[in-house]
Amino acid sequence: MDAILEARGLTKRFHGLVAVNGVSFQLRRGEILGLIGPNGAGKTTLVNMVSGTLAPTAGDLLFEGRSVRGVPAYRRAHLGIGRTFQVMKPFPGMSVLENVAVGALFGANGGERNLERARAWARACLESVGLGKRIAQRADALGGPDRKRLELARALAMKPRLLLLDEVMAGLNHVEIEEVIEDIRRVRAQGISILVIEHVMKAIKSLSDRVFVLHHGEKIVEGGTAEVLSDPRVVEAYLGRQRR
Ligand SMILES: Nc1ncnc2c1ncn2[C@@H]1O[C@H](COP(=O)(O)OP(=O)(O)O)[C@@H](O)[C@H]1O
Ligand SMILES: [Mg+2]
Question: Domain range holding 31?
Answer without folding.
Answer: 1-80+160-244
